[in-house]
């Protein structure tokens, strides 16, 4: 007998027909003798509908009230799925986040789980019940309902799995696993059987939106096997582990891309160490997400710093720079729009020098200009013209042999 | 400065436009310097939609899960109204039933409030906030969400008002007060300025669906002035008090009617004291609501008991009687369908003998057959042919001078 946490996203529980299918799948697992805890998201468009109501009443609704509002969506799904399970003869009980013992920090709309009191879960499991927990939510120390922000239900599932020492956590979603690249755009992109937590973290941060980074971090910290699979098919998905044992030969496991990047360059007359901190502190205060930062100080060349941001933050960034020019003490700012970021990710890169060189070489052969570079132990990102984004991704996908299965 | 609890029903908060209007009305009261607690129902059709989802998944969903499901409706309204208030510059905070400290017995779908811990409400009032409480719900001693059944939000409002020693509780609804009779059917029915709790209790129990009896009882126990008024107009509604001071001359204050009544008569060979208890205990166990009971034991006539029930319970009642014939020990049962109940209600009846006689006399003049009679200190009910229901109501409304205002 294993303990398994199953998480179903909004599409998987989008209507009563799908909720019934989820119930059947859950019963399929209990029939194997497993103890099951289910975590659910709000039904399909529920959250959007609630957001629309809120927007209609207030241009900037308070975060506390948004949490009160939005947390109802998951509660509805948890009750409905429980009814469906009971109707099929499976003893079950639903819990809100606070009933499940999920304690968070005192922050609204983006709270972190601080602790989980598993007593009610353990009691219900002992009584042979399937537990259906409303994802995405918790309670702070002041008795306020909080929500966990984007990917919150994934985080709930992984945190619950870790706290009840589950054998694994299965994330059921509308894709059937993690791909080497986005199959909608990249020919030959294929599903990976396994992936390391770190690789997934890089891919998730690069916009492979299947799993929220926070959920992956949680799984990594507790060495919890995490699978991503489709709620519509019986196929095995992708399993996240500390160290994949399959497809070991793959040095690069994924190629990610992100359009709509803008590069901003600031130049100074004099060295600018203090000013540099000032700029990025200021941008952080305005929640501008700065990605790649490249500093260049060379003899005889004006000192400068370049950084990349998302296009959606462009106008605000320029405004912040302009209105604080005196304070920031820079001399010249220019920018380049129409850029994209392409990244290769793979744990094998650490022990295989030359991967970056191979990447640059291929891009050169494809005649793609590299504007910025950023590297980590398991990732190399380049900023290139947006027009070349898919060409570059396809080329790198091919270059690192991702389309062909070589076990 | 007064403390006022304002309760808004589902129609009054049916869409964002109406929620905005409610917010304006609340701010109108705070502008007068009052401390305000608002209690809200679920928006218009929300509950029906949730019920439909539940029905689609289970023919008989568990009551606990229904409470988990349905309690979200009021939570949504409370958050939305709070956002609207905040947007208009009024400091406000929403509470679920459990955040408002509402403790109930451990019963689902029809729980009674047992105690209210007002600490969070008092704190928020001290901080100058309007509090918006999700009606209809509470928490039992085991941490389970419960709901209060029909009229539950009224009960929440009155119970909160009593526990925070409010000066009054205003129930805003889609009618503008309590009428002498149903104005949709009875010509000349008019709004009452005042009504005693007891009169309202009789009227509520007789199907005047504006206020739930439980809420009225609560108000009566705490001598809490309770007003029923329209959320759409500025008109004063009807105020419920221990003893009305206006319209004192009215001996009868209301004429209520209820169609679809069935009379059942059971006859015995022998005296049946024990058996009588058995029948009504059994019917109660099956939740059959028995209304009027008439027993007749006369020399030389077969002992019998007649009682009235609602048509919707008819089939089940007959089934219970038939399948327990041996146990119940009766000899003969007959019934009469197509009946209705018409009642006159008024506190003044206690000190004015002859009111019942006046009622029977008028019905006789109208050639309406009286099948059963039931009296209390402030009410006389008759069961008559359903076909004569409105005719009787109109006649009695006229007979007791209800259509004419005599102050």
TrEMBL record, chains A, B:
Pathway: Amino-acid biosynthesis; L-threonine biosynthesis; L-threonine from L-aspartate: step 1/5; Amino-acid biosynthesis; L-lysine biosynthesis via DAP pathway; (S)-tetrahydrodipicolinate from L-aspartate: step 1/4; Amino-acid biosynthesis; L-methionine biosynthesis via de novo pathway; L-homoserine from L-aspartate: step 1/3. GO terms for cellular component: cytosol. Tetramer consisting of 2 isoforms Alpha (catalytic and regulation) and of a homodimer of 2 isoforms Beta (regulation). Substrate binds at residues 47, 74. GO terms for molecular function: aspartate kinase activity; ATP binding. NCBIfam families: asp_kin_monofn, asp_kinases, PRK06635.1-2, PRK06635.1-4, PRK06635.1-5. It is an enzyme of class 2 (transferase). This is Aspartokinase. Residues 3-229 form the Aspartate/glutamate/uridylate kinase domain.
């Amino acid at each position: 007998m294993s303990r398994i946490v199953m998480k179903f996203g909004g599409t998987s529980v989008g209507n009563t027909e799908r909720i019934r299918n989820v119930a059947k799948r859950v019963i399929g697992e209990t029939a194997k003798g497993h103890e099951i805890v289910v975590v659910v998201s709000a039904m399909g468009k529920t959250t959007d509908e609630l957001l629309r109501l809120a927007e209609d009443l207030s241009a900037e609704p308070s975060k506390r009230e948004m949490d009160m509002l939005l947390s109802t969506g998951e509660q509805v799904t948890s009750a409905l799925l429980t009814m469906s399970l009971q109707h099929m003869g499976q003893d079950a009980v639903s819990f809100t986040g606070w009933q499940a013992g999920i304690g968070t920090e005192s922050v609204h709309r983006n709270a972190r789980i601080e602790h989980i009191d598993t007593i009610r879960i353990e009691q219900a499991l002992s009584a042979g019940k399937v537990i259906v927990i409303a994802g995405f939510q918790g309670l702070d120390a002041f008795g306020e309902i909080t929500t966990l922000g984007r990917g919150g239900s994934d985080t709930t599932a992984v945190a619950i799995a870790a706290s009840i020492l589950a054998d694994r956590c299965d994330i059921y979603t509308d894709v059937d696993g993690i791909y080497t690249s986005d199959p909608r755009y990249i020919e030959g992109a294929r599903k990976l059987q396994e992936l390391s937590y770190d690789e997934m973290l890089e891919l998730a941060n690069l916009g492979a939106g299947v799993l929220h980074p926070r959920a992956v971090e949680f799984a990594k910290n507790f060495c919890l096997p995490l699978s991503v699979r489709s709620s519509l098919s019986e196929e095995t998905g992708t399993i996240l582990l500390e160290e994949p044992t399959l497809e070991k030969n793959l040095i690069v496991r994924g190629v990610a891309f992100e359009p709509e990047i803008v590069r901003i360059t600031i130049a100074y007359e004099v060295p600018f160490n203090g000013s540099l901190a000032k700029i990025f502190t200021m941008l952080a205060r305005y929640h501008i997400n700065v990605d790649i930062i490249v500093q260049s100080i060379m003899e005889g060349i004006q000192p400068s710093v370049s950084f990349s941001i998302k296009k959606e933050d462009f106008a605000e960034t320029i405004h912040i720079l302009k209105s604080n020019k005196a304070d920031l003490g820079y001399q010249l700012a220019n920018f380049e729009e129409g850029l994209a970021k392409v990244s290769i990710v793979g744990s094998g890169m650490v022990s295989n020098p030359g991967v970056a060189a191979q990447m640059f070489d291929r891009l050169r052969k494809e005649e793609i200009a590299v504007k910025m570079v950023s590297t980590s132990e398991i990732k190399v990102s380049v900023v290139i013209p947006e027009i070349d984004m898919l060409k570059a991704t396809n080329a790198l996908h091919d270059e690192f042999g991702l389309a062909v299965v070589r076990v």
